[in-house]
Specification:
By secondary structure, the protein is of the alpha+beta class. β5 and β6 form a beta hairpin. It is globular and about 50 Å long.
Length: about 210
C-alpha cells in the first residue's frame, strides 16, 4: 500500500466547496377511511453509487461532456461511516470543453450552512487535466462502495479488528497504472492507519505503487 499516492490524490476531491388550506369535511371520516401515518425511515448512510447518480443527473445539464474525477466520503455529525457507506459524499466532475471542474455534494440531511439534504451544487474552477488529475468513464464505476468495502476487508480485516472504532475514509479516483478508477479505503490516518485499494471496475484488491 502506498500512502503517498493516496495523499497526492486527495486534493482532487476538494476542487471547490460552495453551495391552500382546504375546508374541513362536513362529516368525520370512518376509521377505515383514515389513512395510516406515513412511516419515515430513520436517516442512515448510503452507498457511493446511490449518491453518485443523484449528483450525475443535474451535472449533465452543466456540460454535455462531463466526466467524474473523484468521489469522496464525508461525515455528518452523529452518523458513522461504516460498511462502505457514508452520510455525505462529495463528487468532482470535469468538462474538457469548458476546461472546468465542478464540485457537488450529496447528503442524507442538512449539513453545515451550505450543504443541504439531497444534492447541493458547488462552484467551479479551471481545469486542464494532468496525469494526477485524470477523469474516468461512468461505465468504469462498476463496483459500489459497499461491495468494494467487503473486498478491502479481506486484507484489512485483521488490522481493523485490532483497532475498533477507527475512522473510515473512502475515496474513488484514477490511479497510476490501473485500468479504471480505484477505491481507496483508509482506516485512521496516513501515518499510523491502514490503506487498502480495490479496483472499482473489476472489484478486485490491487496494489498501488
Amino acid at each position: 500500500m502506498n500512502k503517498r499516492t493516496f495523499i497526492s490524490l486527495l486534493p482532487l476531491a476538494a476542487a471547490v466547496l460552495t453551495t391552500a388550506c382546504s375546508s374541513a369535511p362536513s362529516t368525520a371520516p370512518s376509521a377505515k377511511e383514515v389513512a395510516p401515518k406515513e412511516q419515515i425511515a430513520p436517516l442512515a448512510p448510503v452507498t457511493a453509487q446511490g449518491a453518485f447518480f443523484e449528483m450525475y443527473k443535474p451535472i449533465r445539464n452543466w456540460a454535455p461532456d462531463v466526466y467524474p474525477l473523484s468521489l469522496a466520503s464525508g461525515e455528518v455529525p452523529g452518523m458513522k461511516n461504516e460498511d462502505g457507506k457514508a452520510a455525505l459524499w462529495t463528487a468532482v466532475f470535469v468538462s474538457p470543453s469548458r476546461r472546468e471542474a465542478r464540485t457537488l455534494f450529496y447528503s442524507v440531511t442538512n449539513s453545515g450552512t451550505n450543504i443541504h439534504k439531497g444534492v447541493t451544487m458547488g462552484g467551479s474552477q479551471g481545469w486542464s487535466g494532468t496525469p494526477k488529475s485524470k477523469p474516468f468513464q461512468v461505465g468504469e464505476f462498476v463496483t459500489n462502495s459497499d461491495a468494494a468495502y467487503k473486498t478491502a476487508m479481506e486484507k484489512a480485516g485483521p488490522w481493523v479488528q485490532k483497532h475498533p472504532n477507527t475512522k473510515l475514509s473512502m475515496f474513488l479516483a484514477s490511479a497510476p497504472r490501473q485500468q479504471g478508477p480505484v477505491w481507496f479505503f483508509l482506516w485512521g490516518d496516513t501515518k499510523t492507519g491502514y490503506l487498502a485499494h480495490v479496483n472499482a471496475t473489476t472489484g478486485n484488491n490491487v496494489s498501488i505503487k
